[in-house]
Amino acid sequence: MFQSLLAKLSGSSNGEKCWQLIEQGARVIDVRSPEEFASGHLPQAINVPLPTLDQWLHQVENKQHPFVLYCGAGIRAQKGCDILRANGFECVVNGGSLKDLVCCQPNP
Question: Does residue 108 sit within a domain?
């Protein structure tokens, strides 16, 4: 299921498909600064600022688990995806901006 959704996603992703991945258990990573994160973030997100991503990735046990990354505009999220892929992570998706994900968040 993850693979079929991931196959449809490239670059900055369609928010609805990102939410499908999140609802299916993808981990959500906010790569913005701690200050940006403190000003508002998705409740399920963890904050791993882009400059610290290289250190954080060594703590991840399952590199096959899906991850959705987001930031302020999608550029840092794409850089984060590139870093993770270069380190053996197979299921990483650029969710784009926080604003984009919030706008298309499904109703509970």
Answer: no
Please tell me the least confidently modeled range out of 14-23, 49-58, 70-79. 14-23
Residue 53 lies in a domain: yes
Domain limits for position 89: 2-103
Rounded-to-integer distance, Cα 70 and Cα 57, Å: 16
List the one residue out of 97, 21, 32 whose CA is nearest residue 66: 21
For every residue of 42-63, DSSP letters joined together read: -TTEEE--GGGHHHHGGG-S-T
Q: What is the arithmetic mean of pLDDT over 28-57?
A: 97
**Which one has a higher pLDDT value, 35 or 13?**
35
CA atoms lying within 13 Å on the CB side of residue 89: 28
